[in-house]
Amino acid sequence: MNKTLHTAANLLALAAALSAAGGATAQAKGDWTVKVGVNKIMPKVESGDVSAPALPGTKADIGTDSKPIFNLAYFVTDNIAAELDLGVPYRHDLFGAGAIEGTGKLGTADVLPPTLFAQYRFFGANAVFRPYVGVGVTYAYFRRERGSAQLTAVLNTGGPASTFSLEAKWAPSVQLGASYRLNERWSVDGGVIKTKVKTTATYSTGQTQDIRLDPVAVNLGLTFKF
Q1: What distance lies between CA 14 and its chain's CA centroid?
Q2: Pairing verdict, β 65-75 and 32-42
Q3: 15 and 9 in contact (C-beta within 8 Å)?
Q4: 155 exposed, middle or buried (CB, 10 Å; 0-12, 13-18, 19+)?
Q5: Cβ within 8 Å of residue 72, ≥6 positions away
Q6: Predicted confidence (pLDDT) per residue in 175-193, tens digit
Q7: What is the pTM of this model?
Q8: Pairing between strand 129-147 and 105-112?
Q9: Distance set, CA 93 to CA 9, 181, 183, 192 (Å)
Q10: Of 16, 44, 32, 97, whose CA–CA distance to 218 is shortest?
Q11: If you write DSSP's letter for every residue of 112-177 in order, what string do you get?
């Protein structure tokens, strides 16, 4: 968290320096923008039980992660834009919950969640401050799932190391954000994204587990218009 706040502070300091450049033009129909910043993903987990044979109430929880982001947007009209959100893979830790809460980290998984939004930007094209809303679709692609010794102890005591996989899913996302134009090319942009996604974990020992992730993502960055 401290690392995320430090990165955000650096971005704001750079934005303040750029604001001295003066001059401002609209983000209008036909414009392209690129946004670079930092994004923090916070899963809001509702875990089902691991299927039998397993201790009843064996659930999972998932930790947060922060990574750089890269977004590309095109203004279809002065008020409607299409935005593609990209970035590097996030790495999330999986922890025991429910009947096995406190057992520690069960494993890690990387996820790539590219998202395509249709946005509506409020106010006129020349407004300095422009809030926006968006609806879109996310593809949650999981990879490099790695089980820990603790996972083996929980699911396969005394046996071979346990592994797992997470099913990739399409999911709806909604977005709320705002941009503040600093000069002709640069803006500060921040937003919150909520995604509704449910996946299934499949363990090497044969059990399965449904997990609703429903993450909230908070981002802050600098936008360049070209």
Answers
A1: 24
A2: antiparallel
A3: no
A4: buried
A5: 32, 33, 34, 35, 83, 84, 86
A6: 999 999 999 899 999 999 9
A7: 0.85
A8: antiparallel
A9: 26, 37, 40, 22
A10: 44
A11: E--EEEEEEE-S-TT-SEEEEEEEEEEEEEEEEEEE-HHHHHHHSTTSSPP-EEE--EEEEEEEEE
